[in-house]
Amino acid sequence: MLALTRKKGESLMVNNDIEITVLEIRGDQVKIGIQAPKNVPIYRKEVYLQIQKENEESVAATSLDELQGLFQ
Q: What whole-number distance in Å separates Cα of residue 30 and Cα of residue 7?
């Protein structure tokens, strides 16, 4: 993990097209802004993990017979 120190108003770049800016610091909370292309999905980690869990459950619940039925 790369750890960087930034002050309010400062940014960092990821690749050539994603900019992350510190917008506000209040106590133990930091508000960030992310500028990225529309085709780049951005999720809070807890939401991302929930999506992954639901996808895994969906795959596990789908039987081979159901999948074969889709292609007949």
A: 10
